[in-house]
Amino acid sequence: MADLAKGTLSARRGRAADIIPLSEAIRVWIRVAALSFGGPAGQIAVMHRILVDEKRWIGEHRFLHALNYCMLLPGPEAHQLAIYIGWLLNRTLGGVIAGILFVLPGFLSILALSYIYVLFGNVTFIEGMFFGLKCAVLAVVLQAVFRIGSRALKNRVMVAIAAAAFIAIFFLQIPFPFIIIATGVIGYLGGRAGIAAFKVGGGHKAQSGKILEDRDSLLGADIPVHARPNLAWSIRISAILAALWFLPVIAILLTLGPTNVFAKIGVFFSQMAVVTFGGAYAVLAYVAQEAVQHFGWLQPHEMLDGLGMAETTPGPLIMVTQFVGFLAGYRDPGVLNPLVTATLAAILTTWVTFLPSFLWIFLGAPFIESMRGNAALAGAMSAITAAVVGVILNLAIWFGLHVLFTEMWTVSWGLWSMNVPVISSIVWPSLVLTILASLAIFHFRMTVITTLLLSAVFGIAWALLMSWGR
């Protein structure tokens, strides 16, 4: 007992060693990954419950501080938070293991569903399942608009930013990255000037009741030796990760050419990893805009099918990009078997989507203490979050048009054009099921997973009923 107490005290004083045994950490991260349903909010809640409340490995304030840093970064914040905490507890190897385990169940699940989709997607049972999921996904995206909006739009300035972002992307077709950059600059300047409207109070609310203070956690309040700023280590690890990210993409470009599907996937999703601020739903608006309209890798209803897969499997919601890459490879296989190309494309998409998260964390995490309480960065985050509300509203309307209507007509004026639904082409079963899914989420407070599963069952029943009637 004395040795255990001595070892714990040594950890709290910041010795350069694992805070907990790596084998125990791996078991816990597998558990976190297996339970990580429900999008970023659900995944962060699972990590908080297990790591803070149950295991008491990390204190409340340190957990929220890490989360706030991850929210400032492009990419999936829940994945980055797992890397960050894994690194704090078990050094670089711990961060790598936590990050890999966090996405592995989702990757394997969506890969299996992607095979089923392309091989058996025309089977009535499968068609019905995805019909139901699409309607539920529309309700889930609407919920995201209200959930994020209630947290982000605290004053008239934030409401104005959200409205401007919606107008910019929906009516003016301004690309998503430009909207995020512009709002980030506005928020940064507003926060630096001390304008009250741009102040934020840390991301997710702590649970009510007594919280676990940092000093009472296993990690303690002090910064471990390995987590202290070390410019040489940061440069070295960043160089390795940057090489792992860019060298495969460069090699593909040089050997296969820029028009090859692998080259397009590598470049596009690498760009996405740099500009995707604001969470998964904001990212989906950008991916849908480019993958559907620009590259033509998949159809709008297929984007909804992929989102349904990501919603019903563990792991980050942005795993839907893997499905996009899979279909892109399947439909442009080159000299390879389509399934082989699709599998390689899914792996490449996942690689360039999630590897940057390791780079952002290992590069910046040791220096985040100096960022704590930075008003300018807080202002940038508040403005970006407000803009994301407008972007997600655009995504909800885009999904709704393709779920509820079968025909569109184009309204043009000079260089500007806009698709408007043909009212007579409304799909009544989709409308009814979308309303039922919305009632389940908003009125009956059902979980996302329950709503998706029930909608899938209703969709299958409807498809079977229609097939028997023919």
Automatic annotation (TrEMBL):
<feature type="transmembrane region" description="Helical">
    <location>
        <begin position="339"/>
        <end position="363"/>
    </location>
</feature>
<feature type="transmembrane region" description="Helical">
    <location>
        <begin position="449"/>
        <end position="468"/>
    </location>
</feature>
<dbReference type="InterPro" id="IPR003370">
    <property type="entry name" value="Chromate_transpt"/>
</dbReference>
<feature type="transmembrane region" description="Helical">
    <location>
        <begin position="268"/>
        <end position="288"/>
    </location>
</feature>
<dbReference type="GO" id="GO:0005886">
    <property type="term" value="C:plasma membrane"/>
</dbReference>
<keyword id="KW-0812">Transmembrane</keyword>
<feature type="transmembrane region" description="Helical">
    <location>
        <begin position="124"/>
        <end position="146"/>
    </location>
</feature>
<feature type="transmembrane region" description="Helical">
    <location>
        <begin position="375"/>
        <end position="401"/>
    </location>
</feature>
<feature type="transmembrane region" description="Helical">
    <location>
        <begin position="93"/>
        <end position="118"/>
    </location>
</feature>
<comment type="similarity">
    <text>Belongs to the chromate ion transporter (CHR) (TC 2.A.51) family.</text>
</comment>
<feature type="transmembrane region" description="Helical">
    <location>
        <begin position="233"/>
        <end position="256"/>
    </location>
</feature>
<dbReference type="InterPro" id="IPR014047">
    <property type="entry name" value="Chr_Tranpt_l_chain"/>
</dbReference>
<dbReference type="GO" id="GO:0015109">
    <property type="term" value="F:chromate transmembrane transporter activity"/>
</dbReference>
<keyword id="KW-1133">Transmembrane helix</keyword>
<dbReference type="Pfam" id="PF02417">
    <property type="entry name" value="Chromate_transp"/>
</dbReference>
<feature type="transmembrane region" description="Helical">
    <location>
        <begin position="421"/>
        <end position="442"/>
    </location>
</feature>
<keyword id="KW-0472">Membrane</keyword>
<protein>
    <submittedName>
        <fullName>Chromate transporter</fullName>
    </submittedName>
</protein>
<keyword id="KW-1003">Cell membrane</keyword>
<feature type="transmembrane region" description="Helical">
    <location>
        <begin position="158"/>
        <end position="189"/>
    </location>
</feature>
